[in-house]
Give the backbone structure.
Amino acid sequence: MISRYNPKDRRRLQRLKLNIAVHYRVNEPLHIKVMVGDKEIEARMLDINIGGMGLLTDFNIPAYSLLLLKFSFFRTNKLGLVKPYGPIEATGVVRYNILLEHDQYRLGIRFDKINKEDEEELHKFVKMSLNP
C-alpha cells in the first residue's frame, strides 16, 4: 500500500508507527474545502510524534492546506489497565502530499495548534510506546 513511499528520515523527532482512525475537516483553502465538502473525513494515521503525523487519505489535499484534526489513542496506567484518551482536537498544516497506489495520498501534517494538556499526554504516549 505504501511501498512507493520510502523517504530518508530527516526528522529530529522519532515517529511512532500507528494505524488508527483520524477525522479531519479542511479549513483552508476555500476551494479545497468546497471540493471535498464541509464535512469530517475519515483517514488512517500512519505515524505520529509531538510535532505532527502522517495520514493516509482518499483525498488530494495540497500542501499548505489547514486541517482540523480529531483523534484518540489508548494509554496504559500504572496498574496496566488500558484506557482511551481523547478525542484530541488540533489544527495542522499539510507539509507534503504523495500520491500512492489505489488513488490514495500520504499527507505529512505539522501540528499548528494543540491544547497543552493534550500535547503533554501525546508526548508521554509516544515516549512510552517508543521506549517501553
In short: The chain has one domain: 16-130. The helical segments are 30-36, 116-130. The beta strands are 16-28, 41-49, 52-57, 66-76, 82-99, 105-114. The mean pLDDT is 86.
